[in-house]
Amino acid sequence: MNKPLKILVIAVSAIVLIIGLGIAYLSFVFDPNQFKSQLIELVKEKKHRTLAIDGNIQLNFFPKLGVSLEKVRLSEFESPTQFANLDKAQVSLALMPLLQKQIVVDKVSLYGLQLRYQRDAQGKSNIDDLLAKDAADNTVKTDSTNSKQMRFDIEGVDIANSQFEVDDQKAALKGSIKDLYLSTGKIGDKNKTPVKFNAAFNFQQPKAEAKIDLNTQLSFDMTQKSLALQDFKTLIAGKLGNDTVEVLLETAALNLNTEHSNSEQIKLKAKLKGAQELGANIMLNKFALQDKQLSIAEVQMQAESKQGGASKQLELKSPIAMDMNTQLLKLSQLAIQLKINDPKLAQTAIAIPVTGHVSVNLKEKNIDSVLAAKFDETQLHASVQVQNFSAPAINFKVDVDKLNLDRYIKASTEPAKATESKEEDLNLAGLKALNLNGVVRIGTLQVKNLHINQVNLPIKAAQGEISMSGLQAQLYQGEVAGNIRFDVDGNRLQMQQKLSNIQINPLLVDFMNKDIVEGRGTLNLQINTHGKRVSQFKENLNGSISTQLLDGAVKGINLAKSLRDFKAKILNKTDQQQGANKNEKTDFSALSASINFVDGVGNSDDLDMKSPFLRVGGKGKVDLRANNLDYTAKVTVVNTATGQDGTDLSQLKDISIPVRISGPFDKLSYQLQFAQIGSEALKSAFKAKAAPVLEEKKKELKEKVNDQLKDKFKGLFER
């Protein structure tokens, strides 16, 4: 070895020895714990928080420069309440890069970290002061950045046994993240490292608990400012309310940087099991983000729900484009296929294809959509606009050419059963948040066997009040118009409807399967009701129903036929009981009546029915609570000419005969109450109607007796 080289080796060795001795001396002499009070005062002065270090502060000089802390606590801003707690922390720096003015973090370890985050409804949080920076700090940082280089090269990060408490009133989020664990390999520029993360979530608002397990290979490029994830896989499993949830997110590769980000495919799978079973698969194909323009060549979604033997399937496809500057998201070629399988429906399998386009403005918080569907015999076009995602205001227009709801709704063949004790209260509080304004127009509608045309149904909902003002439709050669209003508070329903120029018989036959009245005229309804349960709506019904009909008939009884044997009834005074007969009817030229309801019981006393030979009035009661009718009509013969069925009723002219109609609605009976006819009326009828007949019969009998006597005397004399 030549002399200069020996001198260099000796000099370097001497320098290393001196540095080593200096470090060794500092290790024995220097005690960092003596600076605890200064550090505590600094935090108090700068951040107005109380710092407590109950454990030791330890410095390591070789082989790595580092510091470790134990039992550290930090209070809230200007409060003794604890904000953070740390059992142990260790940070080390690589020593040799410091000689080149480079700071290289070698290892970061945290154990037993407990942190509490709070934010009120106005958005003020307990970390705002920690995030705030003054001008002096920014200046120092800028100067420092220019004079020093920091090389991002970490041997690894370990965080274990840590916990975060969250109470965010603005986001309606409250709970904790426990058993937090994070472990990485070496994190360095252009170096691929494994990352593993585990945590347990337990939230009271919304009520949910879950465990998350994340695994990936991470690498980044400081020059390109890019981050790459490979073999990314995250599994979340837990409970949402009383239901179990499982979510899997994965991708083979995801590249992120400030200029361009992309992934060939990102997959999301979700399952929810409980009273209802839900499943969804979402696939993003050719995801790309460049120059703040997001594009997805095609998003595919398959979702399915199952409950009680019924299932619903949804398939969705569309390209997606989004401008990150304007935050405008567009689904320009939306295609949806909805399939319903339900054994409770009349048509157990229904397929509904939907096409259209949707625009979502995330900055303005609104949605604009146009949709169309063609299924079975129906074509539908709709436009929907939504304003404000947190409290949506929805405007819509729906046009349907033809809709047959009876095709899908199975008619019940079982008689209604009394289940009052099992009936549950209506809970419609969720409708208070509904904010709707729109109209539904239907060319031809069939529902409950009713055939309705040109339906125009305006719908508004706000602050718990749902109204349909200006409802219009054509049905049974007439028109219907009116208003409906429902108030969620108290479940109060108000209805005003007028049916004009309606053919009443086909309406009642189609809707109620009751062939009881014929005629054409008007029907007015002014009713209101309320109730905690559906059954109480009948019990609390108040209001009035009135009708005026022309040129019709009452089905079930032929009064003319029932009065045919008037002579025997006058003499016997016996009542005639008979059930309703659909083949019998009593014609009328005009009929009017009204019913006034008080708490489910209706009274009527203004029946006025006119026919060429009869006048009918009456009064009675309709009891919706008991599903029962008790009505007495008084029939008066006013025409002695031959009337209905060719029967001469002149002997009963001006006599009122009571006809009682009674029984349950589905089994009415008719009783002609001849015994209730007044005795004076009978005497008058007998004298005025029956006496001439008897006189005629007496005369005939006298003539016959005289003839017989003549024959007898003649025979006697001829002997």
From TrEMBL:
The chain crosses the membrane at residues 7-30. Keywords: Membrane, Transmembrane, Transmembrane helix. It comes from the Bacteria. Pfam families: AsmA (PF05170). Residues 1-606 form the AsmA domain. PANTHER family: DUF748 DOMAIN-CONTAINING PROTEIN (PTHR30441), PROTEIN ASMA (PTHR30441:SF4). This is AsmA family protein. It comes from Undibacterium danionis.
